Every structure is written in structure tokens, then in C-alpha cells.
Amino acid sequence: MSKKATKALNNRYYIARYNASRSNPALTSREKAAEILNIDRTRLSRIELGTVVPYPEEVLAMSKAYDYPELCNIYCSGDCPVGIVTVKPINADSLDRLILQFLGSSQKMEDITTKLIDITEDGMVDESEIMQFDAVLTELEKMSVNIQSLMLWAQKNKEKLKNGRQKLD
């Protein structure tokens, strides 16, 4: 793409297409991209300008065409009314950072297990245990995000991994 569309500069769907166009010239124009995505060019324009929210199947198509699996999480955690309250944003940083985050959270698993046993051994969660239970849930949520981030990194880099050694980035 020769120049950036100034009205769409901060739109995540435009940015995803723009970045994908560096390796796939077919995505340099909205017309060609819309053809690949099998959606109307004006609809893609409205999505990239932020005047309409894409449908989930459109995001899935963009994610595949742009080779950007993060786009699905971005949509679910930021645009989908259900996902906004149920899905946490994840980040597919470098593999070494993701592994360190995962290991850091997994080291807390024994402590979490002990706390859960202490809380539930009498078959009830009483008022004095609610804060402790909330702390456990917060740690489990962090662990879940770390696991999902690591899985997203693997999905994003699966082809590179199949082709032999992969530099950690």
C-alpha cells in the first residue's frame, strides 16, 4: 500500500490489512481485499473507518486472509458485546516473554490449590473466605490469559515452526 488512509489510521482492522499488504500485494486496496474476504468494498471501508462493527465471520475471514490470528481476540475482547465482559485481551509477544509469564503464574498453582482446599474443605465459602477466593480467581484469570497468549503465539508461528528452527521473537 503506497499511502495510509488517514481517516482509518487508528482502526485495528485497517492496520491489520495494511500490515498484511506488506507481504501480500493483493491486500493493498480495499477493492482487492473485499474480493478476497467476500464482502462488499463499501462495507470493508465502513469497518476500517470505524462506522460499523464487523460481523464475527468477517473478522474470522480477515484474521485468516491477513494471517493475523490476534484479530479474533481483539474483536472478541473489544467489539463483541458478549466478549467484552467474558474475554480478556491477550498478547502474542515474544515466545521467551510468554514462557516466563506462564512459568511465573504456574509456580503459584500449588499455593492456589492449597487455598482452594482450605476455602472449600467445609463445603462452604463463608464471608471470611470471600476475599481469599477472589484472589484465587484473579490468579486463575492471569494464568488463563498467559496460557491463551502462548497458544496464540503458537498458532501464529505454526508454519514457521514446521519449517525448522524458529528464532524466538
Task: Provide an overview of this structure.
With 169 residues, the chain is an all-alpha fold. The protein has 10 helices and no strands. The protein has helices at 12-20, 30-37, 41-49, 56-65, 70-78, 81-86, 95-106, 109-120, 127-156, 158-162. The longest helix is centred in the last third of the chain and has 30 residues, at 127-156. The radius of gyration is 21 Å and the shape is elongated. The mean pLDDT is 88.
Give a quick summary of the entry.
The protein contains 10 helices and no strands. Helix 1 packs parallel to helix 4, helix 2 crosses helix 3 (41-49) and helix 7 runs antiparallel to helix 9.
Essential attributes:
169 residues, single chain
State mean pLDDT (0 to 100 scale): 88
Order of helices and strands: HHHHHHHHHH
- Note the beta-strand portion: under 5%
Tell me the structural class. mainly alpha
The 3D shape can be described as elongated
Question: Radius of gyration over alpha carbons?
Answer: 21 Å
Q: Main sheet, how many strands, which sense, barrel?
A: none
Distance between the termini: 25 Å
How many helices? The count is 10
Total count of strands: 0
What fraction, in percent, of the residue positions are helical?
55-70%
Residue windows where pLDDT falls under 50 for at least 5 positions: none
